[in-house]
Amino acid sequence: GGDIGGENNSNDPRGTALNLVEPSVRPFVEKLHSSDQQYDKIYGKFCNEIYELQRKLHADTKEIFKTRSGIYCNIPDFWVLALSAHEDVKHAISNKDMEILRYLENIEVEMLAPPKKGFTLRFKFRSDNPYFDHPELSKTYEMDPEVPTLEPDLISVSANPSQIKWKNLDPRKSAMVDGPGEDDDDNDDHKYKHRPSFFHWFTSIDIPPPPEFDKEVDEAERHYFKMIREALAADCAIAYAVKDDILPHAVEYYTGEQTIIASTTHHHQNDDNAVRSYVEGRGEAEDAVDLLKVDYTEEEKRRRRDIERQKRAYDEFLATPDAELITKMQENIREADLATATTHKK
Q1: CA 109, CA 66: separation in Å to the nearest integer?
Q2: Closest Cα to residue 213, out of 59, 24, 7, 40?
Q3: Is the dihedral angle over the CA atoms 214, 220, 222, 224 positive or is it negative?
Q4: Which terminus of the chain faces fewer neighbouring Cβ atoms within 10 Å, N or C?
């Protein structure tokens, strides 16, 4: 998952910590800090080179993916089956989502050009898609180029379009049936209840800066930052599953080969009929995978629980009234930052 914000320069945590060190050893600690800075400089160069290698890999394989895109369209339901076979993605896909994803024509990744760091995932839909007119839904992840780390230090998670214009009922909502006189205005959230959907993922996340070093954080803010972290973790789990796992080896997820590999890795018996049923589309993809009846290890069970917890947190963050509270809190934070900046200028 991604970290929230970058390094905090508004205070001096190092100086504060150094003052707590025994005076007799402070000169040695300062030398170690100097050594750290030398290491960070080399490590930062290494991280930038890794990113450039990723961009080179993307450029060198562009023709391969272009050739593949012409083949995918000949295989019905290719992408919905491939996506539904990945452990980190299938839990986010509802039955309604599967109907919509049948119109998914291709998925592409684009690496951001320097000085930016990050990538964009593009989901391209067929023109006969009856659910919305957008030819493409995309999600962009931008990392802080100044932070030397191989872990994504996110500064921006943005969706385009910012709002999907649904022709029919939004799959993230279901109609409320308790009460007379309800109309069909699907823009009125009071007349609908939210439900889990893969399309919650096509939502921007406003990443706040971390709290100041010496600022007291109350319980509401602590809860807010916790929700943001968990939402980002769940969001990035899907993004990196698509980018690094599914896209390079999409056919292996479509055929069920990756399901077999995952199962045999844990030394379990596989049911070939279940995989065949999965490929041919008899029943829901998730049900077919579940027919494998894998007796998961405790570590795998824990990992699955973590994924489910992150997904629930993500759904809560994007699809419950708490989202309104978070939005309001973000506005308050911006107002406070603006007031602070104005004060400093004076």
Answers
A1: 12
A2: 7
A3: negative
A4: C
Decide if 122 contacts 110 (C-beta within 8 A).
yes
Lowest mean pLDDT among 48-62, 94-108, 248-262, 320-334: 320-334
Dihedrals phi, psi of 226, to nearest 5 degrees? -65, -45
Tell me, rounded to whole angstroms, the distance of Cα 84 from its chain centroid.
16
The closest alpha carbon to 144, from 120, 121, 110, 116, belongs to 116
What is the value of pTM for the model shown?
0.67
User: What gap in Å lies between CA 226 and CA 109, rounded to an integer?
Assistant: 29
CA angle (16 as vertex; 15, 18 as ends), nearest 5? 60
Q: Which of 86-90, 270-274, 312-316 has the lowest mean pLDDT?
A: 270-274
Q: What is the DSSP letter of 24?
A: G
The H or E element that residue 58 is part of is helix 26-60
Question: Which residues share a beta bridge with 78?
Answer: none
- Amino acid at residue number 140: T
Element (H, E) at 297: none
Specify the residue for token string 């800075």.
37
- The backbone region for 283, taken as left when phi is positive above 0, alpha when psi lies in -120 to 50, beta otherwise, is left
23's CB contacts (< 8 A; 6+ apart) are: none
Q: What percent of the chain has pLDDT over 70?
A: 64
Beta carbons within 8 Å of 196's beta carbon, 6+ residues apart: 92, 94, 172, 311, 315, 319
Distance CA 335, CA 346 (A): 17
Question: Is the pLDDT reported for residue 285 higher than 50?
Answer: no
Cβ–Cβ under 8 Å, residues 294 and 263: yes
Residue type, 226: K
The DSSP 8-state label assigned to residue 210 in this structure reads P
